[in-house]
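Still learning. Any example?
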Amino acid sequence: MMTQIKQLAIIGPTASGKSDLAIKIAKKIDAYILSIDSLSIYKEIDIVSAKPSKEELESVKHFGINVLYPNEYFSVDIFITLYKEVVEACQKNGKNLIIVGGTSFYLKSLLQGLSDIPKIDENVKKRVAKRLENLHDSYELLNALDPLYMKNINKNDSYRIEKALLIYEASHKTPTQWFLENPPKPVIEDLPIFNIEVERDILRERIAKRTKKMLLLGLIDEVCVLEHKYTREPHPMASIGILEVLEFLDAKVDKEQMLQNIATHTAQLAKRQQTFNKTQFENLISAPLEKLEEIILKKMNA
């Protein structure tokens, strides 16, 4: 029997204490946790992503962590499918849901939704598979038909080229035309969103401490293993924490400069996250970390 569940989201800049707070709240309101973190989704990227510890992951059931390998494709539509599966699991098991993480873009996508895609039958799949045997020609065809849609797609992005081709072959419309006629529908509505407020100086200090801790935990070894196994080609290999270690391994910077670069770039990311969170969400409930637990529990138990 499917039960009605309560849902909430906890967002905030990197190193603001989101994961610890989510685990605390989850234990008190009997909830599962869905991570919205662009690196924690990947297996083997553990230290760089500052994933919760094994003990923390076992103390509350987490989703959205260790789902894909670093060389596997991840996108908003895959995340939305994952979210729907998690909600189903919560309903089935009588659990509430906490969405938590620093990649608020994924949360925004839940609130905005995605457009439906046309019905794709086996004939369409076969035609597209045949076209994809020559990725360059497929890209050029789409670029000629729909330059507006293709301007943000790399000529080697086989996943998105395939998606655009499937839409075109199934609907006989360009992706731009299709999406104009089929606007997105929200996946979730009325979601309480709680934002951790933190002073910039305190955040910088926490980021610097976390960066040093990552080094002690084996950051350089982790990146060496990732590079050896997956090369530098996959998208996650350009992430903050990995990129700076690769520069160190290339002898472009010394270890001290590497740490400084990671801390600086992480602080810049935190600033962008704070700006995004404040400007992209309506009715955001913001408070310092030490006050937010009480606010959330009061709201959820009302």
Observations:
- The longest helix spans residues 255-280.
- The two ends are 25 Å apart (CA to CA).
- The chain is about 55% helix and 10% strand.
- The beta strands are 7-11, 31-35, 62-63, 96-100, 193-197, 285-288.
